[in-house]
Structure of RagB/SusD family nutrient uptake outer membrane protein:
Amino acid sequence: MKRNIILLLAGIFLLAGCKDLLVPEIENNRDLNGVNYPPNDAGLPFGILLNGYNRIPTNSWSFNDVATDDAVTNDQNNGFLKIANGQWTANNNPLNQWTNAYAAIQYLNIMLRDVDTVQWAADPVVSKLFRMRVKGEAHGLRALFYYHLLQAHGGLSESGAVLGVPLNLEVQGPAADFNKPRATFEACMQQIYSDLTKADDLLPLDYENIADAALIPAKFGSITSEQYNRAFGAAFRGFLTGRIVKAIRSKAALLAASPAFSNGNTTTWADAANYAGEVISLKGGVGALSPNGITWYSNAAEIAGLADGANPAEILWRNNYGDNRDLEQANFPPGLFGNGRINPTQNLVDAFPMANGLPIGNTGSGYDAANPYTGRDPRLRMFILVNGSTAGPNSTLINTAVDGPTNDALNKVETSTRTGYYLRKLLRQDVNLNPNSANNQRHYKPHIRYTEIFLNYAEAANEAWGPLGAGKYGFSAYDVIKAIRKRAGVGTTNGDAYLEEAKGSKEQMSALIRNERRIELCFEGFRFWDLRRWKLNLSETAKGVSIRNNIPAVINVEVRQFQPFTTYGPIPYGEILKFGALEQNKGWR
């Protein structure tokens, strides 16, 4: 245990902007059994809190998309490939959040138990503010981990009841009763809401310096701007805030309102819409959708200019940035010295409409099967390398045809595409992998993008009030989707006739919203979870394109083998063996 604490303390010094918390100086290291922290030991308990931050799952970069109809991989050892091929079991689950989340929750419970015993700063007023903040962060992070547990492990009992996970709200020592039954999904949601409300009450909306004490929220009492800034100033950007808490509430409510989990819980589509609407309203409304948010990952000047902890307009919360080329090494085509790992499917390509906004299968769309990439939604070429695209620092032509002359061709070598497509989204095209002139570029991973929250609102508002229902915040699902498509350059030449048609039908608008979500959030780890919460077909065959003599032909690439019960993930098999009170989700063994 002492070794773990030393590692936690080492992590403190790696985070920029935390030096205020290290006054007074750390004097020594102790284990976690003591409740009364000496006055000069603010670093130790903050290190415990950091353990929660370090365990936050990140959707981006997991690429569970290869277990969906959006992508396959050429890496035959990929865990998501194996579960898509029928090898998903309760003891072989690459989506398992159980161990990581409950470890984080244990640390957060320790923090909530001990936070009032810590002298966080020499100034008693500042120490009180830190105490409020740390409590808020711990409650908010605990809610986030319960959300991830519900997403990965919530499911149905044998009787059909919607179950959540065991609720551990106290520190579990050696004598604790670990054999706890699963709480209902509703009870877990109410605990998430409770934690988020407490966090919202204790945290500032954002961490920013305040020059005038008159701007300090009343909940923090009568304090000076200097005292406020020491606890809640810009030095702490990147840590949990009230704005982030509201966004987590939106994510959790959308999950709860969705078809897979809605039976027996009290969260409604209107609740989910209002929680997302609050975040959008704070952002500035529908008109505040970031103009360059589609390419957030490759806006070079914007990324280069990011201050520590600061966010560009598209990003609500992100991790620290780093200079590397790992994504490009994994996913550039072999002709650019990459491994071509993630291969988008023809299924996803077909989901992109024409530039005029009409689906490719609609009469009058202008789609030409002989020239399938002409006149399409601009996002197609932004996100996917199609045959004839250029890529890399020298704008190299990529030929994916089966009769292509390079290793970029379909199934040419082990690192070649299996579908006729390569990933473009998330990758910096200014990265060079040539061993003679290799370079890195700055990347960051978003925890939450504003576009996700906009899409959360559109989905929930349409289900609650129909396409044009404005709700309490004065904008509708139609308004949001119109803004998203306009930003993408879709339907701008014909008044987006398809959207105008869809606004007359809740069902048609629902299909359009789901398709826009699929496109906008592709390869960011959403599709896997979305298909399940919507209770849609998981076993659609992944398709590709074989181009020979410039003639494209659709091919079957991978048959998916999901059982009906895999709408819900399993409780880990080892936990079921250890604890008789735990009930496995229906269908899993």
Residues 1-30 have pLDDT under 50 and may be disordered.
